[in-house]
Design brief:
heterodimer; A: 286 residues; mainly alpha; MetI-like fold; 14 helices; B: 285 residues; 75% helix
Chain lengths: 286, 285
């Protein structure tokens, strides 16, 4: 450290250090609660009762073994959520892409009108719909059918998906399609070979948001599914929470939260750019 | 090719999921359908609506839901702005920090609500552990009405601030840097720049973030259901939780539909008020 370095910051803290302190605070706030779950999940019941924050002794993997060998084993919920998430995403995209395409080729006035309706539906607190949807499910015999969850999930995510994809279609130059029409391409061929390859980023962003929603959805899964081996992650967590309200310590609960969070952490680290793009586009274009 | 044909499947599903339930509730709210009617629907006219108007628990929950939404979203906007300003600066490792900071938003609400229940646990949670090691008495966060609703706010702010921060960050990235340089040349300080350039230009983004978040917060269900179950003594119960209890615990479907429709009407009223207020703000500007 030379002399003039010190002269420049008499009485003050260097800006980089201030930024560093804020970043540390942000990470502590964002990750602290999860790190606490990780810590709890690795402690024995006796160690947890002895006091929060101890480090000496009392480490165990027993909480994980308990959760993973339960009835049903915890990975079953993760599998159920993955299946529902993947199928809901495919169904939503299959319905939203043609709809968004048709909408993007319509007059501006219609697009604004439909766009307004879709935006209202996208921000609507969908929990209000659960009772009517449950009645429909019972009448059609869809209760306790894991795959049937894709229908309400696709319906609930269509507004956001159509808005996002419509904006992406509208950004493609119209000349591209016009020349394909002259070449004699059918609508399906134009969509499949010309337009969709250019839509990759938008389709991936939209799909990720739909997947996250379906993976995390609670009230509809809670009311449609009662058989425990068919539960998705969110209602399974609520059932674990409700089954033993007064049971301390929380070692097994914490192991469940860690196992339930890990896949999403991986997804986020792999696809953060696409998820961020989808999120910001969704709000701004909508 | 017929555009309507391409849109038809999506529109049909949208009608089934969004429009049909509201029509169903309108009909159901004029029926008695509960254990007293053997779960058969019996027309009763406006009886459910009269009950709603006089139902103290409904209005109490409406107030609690509004308080939760306004306080949570207000705090989220403040914290979200601070985080967006931090992430907007250039420093090493910014991309990784942005992903990690987004984690709370990506997790299922029920997972993290269970996590927060352990953090607020009395006396074994870490907050009470810290208080005890300082020689203080532990605090029953989830058992005292005054504290339990604050606990729900903290958990909600933790979970959804990343969403607000990302939206505001996108807004910050739209502001041309020249504006700040010109402002600095005129002798403006960074703090004045925040008030005179950043915040006015960020306003549409703040509005969008507030709109999305208010709508979600007013419908809060997952978080309350797992963190407090609406307790203690219904002090954290939201309207959505009340509607759920009416249907699934009290098996009073007619009244549950009325509660949900009542909540929907209150939301419409709020949305209309927001639009009028925004219109007036635009006229003034």
């Amino acid at each position: 450290m030379n002399a003039d370095g010190n002269v420049g910051r008499t009485g003050g803290i260097r800006p980089e250090m201030r930024t560093g302190a804020w970043v540390a605070l942000l990470l502590l706030w964002s990750l602290g609660p999860m790190l606490w779950q990780l810590y709890t999940s690795l402690r024995t019941p006796a160690a947890l009762l002895a006091g929060a924050g101890g480090l000496a002794g009392g480490w165990t993997l027993g909480n994980y073994t308990a959760v993973l060998t339960g009835d049903p084993p915890f990975w079953r919920y993760l599998l159920n959520s993955s299946v529902v998430g993947a199928l809901s995403t495919l169904l939503t995209l299959a319905l939203a892409i043609p709809c968004a395409y048709a909408l993007s080729r319509r007059r501006v006035l219609l697009r604004l009108l439909v766009g307004g309706g879709l935006l209202a539906a996208a921000v609507f607190p969908y929990v209000l719909l659960f009772l009517a949807l449950l009645q429909v499910a019972r009448q059609l015999g869809l209760a306790n059918n894991l795959l049937a969850l894709c229908l309400p999930y696709a319906g609930l995510q269509l507004p956001l998906a159509v808005l996002l994809l419509q904006a992406a279609f509208a950004e493609l130059p119209p000349e591209l399609e016009e020349s394909a029409v002259l070449e004699g391409f059918s609508l399906w061929q134009r969509l499949r070979w010309i337009l969709l390859p250019l839509m990759g980023p938008a389709v991936v962003s939209t799909g990720l948001l739909v997947f996250l929603f379906s993976w995390n959805e609670f009230p509809i899964a809670l009311t449609w599914i009662s058989r425990s081996e068919l539960l998705t992650l969110a209602p399974a967590m609520a059932r674990i929470a409700g089954s033993s309200v007064y049971t301390v310590p929380y070692g097994a609960f914490a192991a469940a939260t860690v196992l339930g969070s890990a896949p999403l952490l991986a997804l986020l680290l792999l696809f953060q750019r696409q998820i961020v793009a989808g999120l910001t586009q969704g709000a701004i274009k909508g | 090719m017929n555009a309507l044909l391409l849109m038809a499947p999506a529109l049909l599903l949208l009608l089934a999921v969004f429009v049909w339930p509201l029509l169903d509730y309108a009909w159901l709210s004029l029926q008695a359908q509960s254990v007293f009617t053997g779960l058969e629907a019996v027309p009763v006219g406006p009886l459910n609506w009269q009950r709603l108007a006089a139902d103290g628990r409904f209005w109490q929950d409406a107030w609690q839901t509004l308080r939760f939404a306004l306080v949570s979203v207000g705090l989220e906007l403040l914290a979200g702005l601070a985080i967006a300003l931090l992430l907007h600066q250039r420093w090493r490792g910014r991309g990784v920090v942005r992903s990690l900071a987004l984690l709370p938003w990506a997790l299922p609400t029920t997972v993290m609500a269970l996590g927060w229940r352990w953090i607020f646990n009395d006396p074994y949670g870490p907050i009470n552990g810290l208080l005890q090691s300082l020689g203080l008495a532990s605090v029953p966060f989830l058992a005292a009405p005054e504290l339990a609703w604050l606990a729900t706010v903290v958990a909600d702010v933790w979970k959804t601030t990343p969403f607000v921060a990302l939206l505001l960050l996108a807004g910050l990235q739209m502001i041309p840097h020249d504006l700040y340089e010109a402002f600095a040349l005129e002798g403006g300080t960074p703090w004045q720049g925040l008030w005179r350039i950043t915040l006015p230009l960020l306003r549409p983004y703040v509005f969008i973030a507030a709109l999305f978040r208010l709508a979600q917060a007013l419908g809060v269900f997952d978080l309350i259901a797992v963190l407090t179950g609406g307790g203690p003594a219904s002090s954290t119960e939201s309207l959505a939780v009340y509607a759920y209890l009416n249907a699934m615990r009290f098996l009073d479907f007619g009244y549950s539909a009325t509660v949900m429709l009542g909540m929907f009407l209150l939301l419409l009223l709020g949305a209309a008020a927001l639009l009028v207020w925004r219109r007036q703000a635009e006229v003034r500007a």
